[in-house]
Amino acid sequence: MSSVFRTEEMSVRMSDNITRAQVMANAPGSYLAEFTVGTARTNGCIVCRDPNDASHGLIYDSGKPGERAIPQKAARRIRNATKLIV
Hints:
Blueprint: E1 10-13, H1 20-26, E2 33-34, H2 37-42, E3 45-50, E4 53-61, H3 72-81, E5 83-84
Antiparallel strand pairs: 1-4, 2-5, 3-4
């Protein structure tokens, strides 16, 4: 569902600093989906790495970071490029 991508601040895990197994161990029963930073950026988003946790990132709408949700069209495109892992 594209609605999960329509948020003012999308919390993500950065695969270069955490494994799938670690993500799933920290969030049992959750779904795991995968998309690239490039996909987010191509769809008008900015990606920021958490300075206190290298495996955590935040994605914002580039027009008004943290003030408005990622637009519906961009959320759909990100959803369409996402691979559901679990």
